[in-house]
Design goal:
Elements: E1 3-11, H1 16-28, E2 33-38, E3 41-44, E4 58-67, H2 71-84, E5 100-106, E6 111-113, E7 116-118, H3 127-136, H4 150-155, E8 163-167
Antiparallel strand pairs: 1-4, 1-5, 2-4, 3-4, 3-8, 6-7
């Protein structure tokens, strides 16, 4: 058994469902990586985006993997998948994107590097991450955090910004074992 790792997926540009499926397929194709669980897909109000993009809702989901790679290799592969799927990074933060793959956690690793922060520093503050994460790991305690489980973190969050169920079909793939 490798390391339990969580990836948050988000997209608000173009064929959103297609982008999520492509990212999932690319992640599953990596050597040394096995999909353990997939959340439902949620449609979410944009958070922290420039005003001209406030109407562009995101699709968000979380995938859990058993990863045989080290954390740096995992990060490199995940960012290469973003590039392959035409993720464009601009100087303006939070602009529309075909795909955003966030490393939410990697086992019990706590890391603060310019290119990698684990667990993800905003994970516990974003309903659009906590809700799908609770689909697949409600009892998870993030490393280096307080004693609350993800379901306890989610229960304490405000209802807004809105996060609405979009699809339950995606989570069945990979969860049937």
């Amino acid at each position: 058994m490798g390391t339990l790792a969580g990836i948050g997926l988000g997209t608000n540009l173009g064929d959103r469902m297609g982008h999520l499926c492509d990212a999932r397929a690319e992640l599953e194709a990596l050597a040394g990586v096995k999909l353990l669980a997939a959340s439902n897909i949620y449609e979410t109000d944009p958070v922290g985006v420039p005003a001209e993009y406030a109407h562009m809702a995101f699709l968000n989901a979380v995938l859990l993997f058993d990863v045989e790679l080290d954390v740096e290799e995992w990060s490199t592969h995940v960012h290469a998948i973003e590039d392959k799927l035409l993720r464009v990074r601009t100087e303006v933060r939070n602009t529309p994107r075909t795909i955003d793959l966030d490393l939410l956690f990697f086992g019990d690793v706590v890391m603060e590097r310019p290119h990698l922060h684990l667990p993800h520093p905003q994970c516990r503050n974003r309903r659009f991450v906590c809700m799908p994460l609770c689909d697949v790991a409600p009892d998870l305690h993030l490393p280096g955090e307080d004693t609350r489980s993800m379901k306890e973190v989610l229960a304490a969050m405000p209802e807004l910004p809105a996060v609405k169920l979009y699809s339950t079909e995606w989570n069945a793939i990979g969860n049937e074992e």
